[in-house]
Every structure is written in structure tokens, then in C-alpha cells.
Design a protein that fits this description.
Length: about 575
């Protein structure tokens, strides 16, 4: 590319200089600078010219190119460093949590995480005290545990909606920016929780604030993801579309599976509740169109993700990059023997005293340590904060529960050409009428997970849908042309397995995504067996052992024929 920048791109061509935001304005030619200014005015910079969605894609986001040392045992695969992580973690700076930052980071590191985000709850006390106080602990954890990247973020009370992760790349102004954001746009701080147009506009203003902070280089980068989106029915379809459309380089996705995965373990060995604490009923601010089933999990996954042809697919069918993750939401760990330190005064100090050894296992807690059960795997172009954020933004992400699989390489390519093709989150451009194939290589578990058994992958499903463009109804949460098109029985427990799915002649825009299961619990999907014959079952309230029902999901790849 010149200028000392060396980036890898799946589209088979270099990103033009004017679209590569790692190149400063002053290094561009006059023509490139003019084109960049035009793209800026059109609102098309910041996501590699993908603001219009995949139907308007001109290229993919450039990586920042900062390469640190690779983490231990994390060899590159398919040209990327696949780093497991967790963007939803609480500490003693949250009013309902207990652990120190270093406790969470050391556990996450021990359980194989390459990156983590500390996301204490937004609110008056956190905004006033906690956001400042937690930073030295995060900085110290970065120094103490060098092979896990530790981001500072917060769990945003989204105005008019649920919770979300907001986090920034480390830099001189990370604390000041997060503090201003929280004081100005947090729904709890501003009393803006009700589902009103004014509060929905405040949420958009918050995303605009983050985008402006990145644009003015106050912070290097920022991302937002919606957390446990179906838990209370507060995140309406039009709000999710609105977040993504307003700032597609900031609002990039949602938790496909919530944390709190131990919450469904039956009493007396667990809380005996809803998996993910999905145990609510519709309230005054819930979106009235959602069905009763949406308030439950399916194989531990959120209804929006688990329903083939459902809300997630309705977004993907528009060509909207909207990615899924899986996280711990760790507050109190199931079976842990810790307790809050004595003489704690959270309201006065913005934190609880350091935890102490209580000696009594807490089986009423519903969480697992970061990395212990839920993992979000990001295809990163290096071991650095910016590279992980770019991988998340690009959708190079797959998620799993319980260590169901160890690795996943997926490529869409023109059949018979020998081309490498594109990976998760990417867009394959082919000539109209070309034949396309999807290659899948899965590294099976091969070793015990943290529950001390070796998971067995039983089946892999290929899910395909048509890309039909923007929905006329912003509250649509189904799409009729998405279904399971192929299932593969694995019949193997170690090593790798490979499958090739033939999409055939592509005469219209489509997308494909993957799902896999241990085969423990399956049922026809909510939209019928013709759409999804063997999907995840709805979880049983009070009796849902997460280890007996393991799934993985990938983000999609789009295939767009040129007319």
C-alpha cells in the first residue's frame, strides 16, 4: 500500500488511501484528500465505506496495523490471530458485584482469554466516582497480566432501552471521555429509561458523541454492543436499526447469548432460575410485538439470535452488518467462596471493599468466570487493542459455549477457481450466475473443558437467507427467505472435520451463517420445521444445566453477484 502500511484484506484488493483511516490526511495526495472529504460529508467513513450496508460495500475496514507480541499458545489461523474474549464483566465498582479488577483479569487469562472489557454499571455513583477509581486498577492489571488485553468500558443504561457495552481503546482521554459520555447520556443518570421518542433520540446522541470523539481523535476508537437484548423486551426492532444506521462504525452488534449461564442450574446446586436470568414478563416499556417466547433463552442463546428467520436474520437480510457475541456478565460466580469486604459503603466510596474468603460456596450465584463457559472469538490482525476492535467491527467473530469446538475457519469463494475467498463478516463479490461454495473447517474440542469433560460436536447447520434490502417496516423481526439449508453429522470426536456446502449458481444477494450443537436438546424452530427442523429448545425454567446443551454460532458472510 505504500506509506509503510501493510494490511490484509479479504476482498482481493487494497483499500484506497482515502478510505484507509490509518493514513493521516496530510499523507494523502490532493486527489485522495478531496475524495476523503467527500466521503466524510456523506457520512461514509469510519467503517471502511460500509455505512450503507453490504449492498453498498466498497471495501472493508482497515486494520490499524499495530502488532504486539502474540499471546501464549495463540497461533495464527487462516491469516488471523483468533483471540477469545469477553466484553461484559463487572467488578467491585458495580453496586451488584464483588470482585477486584485483577481477580476477573487473572481468571479470564487463566481460562484462555486474550481480551476483556471491564463494564461496571453506569449510574450516578459510578459516573461521579467509579469511572475514575477503576482506571488505576485496570492500568495495574494491564501491567500484571500482559498477555490479556484489558479495556475500560461501562455498562450503559441505554436511554429508552436495555443495557449495552460501551468501551474505548486505551489512550490519554479514555477516562474523561467515558465520564462525559456517562454523565450526558446514561439512562439512569439522566432519568431517561422510559420508552419515549425523546429518550430514543438521547441514545442516538450518545452514539454520535462517541463517533465524534473518535473523529476528533480524542480517543483512538470506541464500540457499542447491546447486552441481553431480549431479557425484558426493551430493545425494539426500530431502536436496534436506529443505533446501527446512525453510527455503523460504533454500534456493531449484540449479545447473541447473554451471560449468567449458571442461573438455570436446578436447586440446591444452583439458583434454579432462568438461564441468563431471562425470567421477565412484558412491562410498560417493553415492545408490544414480541411473543412470550422472546423472554426466554433457547440453548442459552437469546431469542433474537436463536430463531432462524427471526430478528437477527431480519437485520442481516437488509444487508446490515450486525454481529453477535457471547459473554459472562460475571458479577458473582457460581460456587465461589468470596464475600464482600467488611465495612463496605458503596454509595460513599463508589466501590465495595476488597472481597474476603467466606468459606461457604455460593450456589445461589448464576455466573461463570470470564472464559470459563462463554467465549467470543475474534479474528484479529495482531495482538493489540485496535486490532481486536477492528476484528469485532469487521464481524470476524464466532462464539461458543463450554468449549464445544476449538477452532473454526469458514470461507466463501467462487467454486472451482482456487481463490481463497472471504471469511466471517466479509462480502464475496462474484459475477452474476457464478457458482459459489462455502468451505468449513472445524477443530474439534479434543480436550476437557472447565467442567472436566470433552465436548462432542454432533451436528453443524448451514443457514442461508436472501438479502432483500432495507425493510419497509422498521419494527419487522422476521424474514421469510431464511432457513437451514444443510446439516452435517460430525461422527468424530477428535482432530478436524471439513465440509463444503455448494450454494450453486448465485443469481441474487444472499448470506450464510453457521450453527453447531452437541445434540443434547433440539426442537423445531419457532417459525416451523420447514425453516429450522432441529433448532435449540426453549430452556426449562429452574432446570437448565448449561453443560448439557452446548452450541456455537458464527457471524455471516454475504455473497453479492454483480449485475
Amino acid at each position: 500500500m505504500g506509506r509503510g502500511h501493510h494490511h490484509h484484506h479479504d476482498h482481493g484488493h487494497e483499500l484506497p488511501g482515502e478510505a484507509d483511516l490509518s493514513i493521516p490526511d496530510e499523507e494523502l495526495s490532493p486527489g485522495e484528500l478531496s475524495r476523503r472529504r467527500m466521503f466524510r460529508r456523506a457520512g461514509l467513513l469510519g467503517a471502511g465505506l460500509t455505512a450503507a450496508g453490504v449492498l453498498g460495500t466498497a471495501g472493508e475496514a482497515a486494520a490499524d496495523g499495530d502488532q504486539g507480541v502474540a499471546g501464549r499458545g495463540r497461533e495464527p489461523r487462516d491469516g488471523y490471530l483468533w483471540l477469545a474474549g469477553d466484553h461484559h464483566i463487572h467488578t467491585q465498582y458495580s453496586s451488584d458485584a464483588v470482585y477486584r479488577v485483577i481477580d476477573q483479569v487473572r481468571h479470564g487469562n487463566a481460562y484462555g482469554l486474550g481480551w476483556m472489557v471491564i463494564t461496571d454499571h453506569g449510574g450516578a455513583t459510578h459516573a461521579k466516582i467509579g469511572v475514575d477509581k477503576v482506571n488505576p486498577d485496570i492500568v495495574a492489571a494491564r501491567e500484571a497480566v500482559k498477555d490479556t488485553l484489558v479495556f475500560q468500558g461501562l455498562e450503559w443504561n441505554i436511554p429508552a432501552a436495555e443495557h449495552g457495552t460501551v468501551f474505548v481503546a486505551p489512550g490519554q482521554h479514555e477516562v474523561a471521555t467515558l465520564k462525559e459520555f456517562e454523565n450526558s447520556f446514561d439512562g439512569s443518570v439522566k432519568g431517561a429509561g422510559a420508552s419515549t421518542p425523546q429518550n430514543e433520540a438521547l441514545a442516538i446522541a450518545g452514539l454520535n458523541f462517541l463517533a465524534d470523539a473518535v473523529r476528533r481523535r480524542r480517543i483512538p476508537d470506541a464500540l457499542f454492543l447491546a447486552n441481553h437484548p431480549s431479557r425484558k423486551g426493551l430493545d425494539s426492532p426500530h431502536e436496534m436499526r436506529g443505533w446501527r444506521d446512525a453510527q455503523p462504525s460504533i454500534a456493531v452488534g449484540m449479545e447473541g447469548a447473554p451471560g449468567h449461564q449458571a442461573a438455570g442450574i436446578a436447586k440446591p446446586h444452583g439458583p434454579g432460575g432462568g438461564r441468563g436470568y431471562y425470567d421477565s414478563n412484558p412491562g410498560a416499556d417493553s415492545f408490544p410485538g414480541y411473543p412470550a417466547e422472546s423472554y426466554k433463552t433457547f440453548g442459552g442463546f437469546d431469542w433474537m439470535t436463536a430463531t432462524v428467520g427471526g430478528l437477527w436474520d431480519s437485520l442481516l437480510a437488509e444487508g446490515k452488518p450486525w454481529w453477535i457475541t457471547a459473554n459472562s456478565d460475571a458479577h458473582w460466580v457460581h460456587g465461589d467462596t468470596s464475600d464482600r469486604g467488611p465495612n463496605s459503603n458503596f454509595n460513599a466510596n463508589g466501590k465495595y471493599e476488597d472481597p474476603i474468603y467466606k468459606g461457604v460456596p455460593n450456589f445461589g450465584a448464576g455466573d461463570f468466570w470470564p472464559g470459563y463457559y462463554s467465549r467470543t472469538h475474534v479474528g484479529s490482525q495482531g495482538f493489540s487493542y485496535r486490532a481486536v476492535m477492528n476484528g469485532l467491527r469487521a464481524g470476524r467473530v464466532w462464539v461458543d459455549h463450554g468449549g464445544l469446538i476449538s477452532g473454526l475457519v469458514v470461507r466463501a469463494r467462487a467454486a472451482g477457481t482456487g481463490q481463497r475467498g472471504v471469511t466471517l463478516g466479509g462480502t464475496l463479490h462474484v459475477r452474476l450466475g457464478a457458482r459459489v461454495e462455502l468451505t468449513i473447517e472445524i477443530t474439534l474440542a479434543g480436550r476437557p473443558n472447565w467442567a472436566q469433560f470433552v465436548p462432542t460436536l454432533a451436528r453443524v447447520d448451514v443457514i442461508q437467507g436472501d438479502v432483500t434490502g432495507p425493510a419497509a417496516d422498521k419494527d419487522a423481526f422476521t424474514t421469510p427467505a431464511t432457513k437451514v439449508v444443510q446439516s452435517y453429522e460430525v461422527n468424530k470426536s477428535t482432530g478436524t472435520v471439513a465440509f463444503t456446502y455448494q450454494l450453486g449458481v448465485v443469481d441474487r444477494p444472499v448470506y450464510v451463517r453457521l450453527r453447531g450443537t452437541d445434540g443434547g436438546r433440539s426442537a423445531p424452530g419457532l417459525l416451523g420445521a420447514a425453516v429450522d427442523p432441529h433448532g435449540p429448545q426453549i430452556d426449562v425454567y429452574g432446570d437448565a444445566d448449561p453443560w448439557n446443551d452446548l452450541w456455537f454460532y458464527s457471524n455471516p458472510i454475504w455473497v453479492l453477484p454483480r449485475r
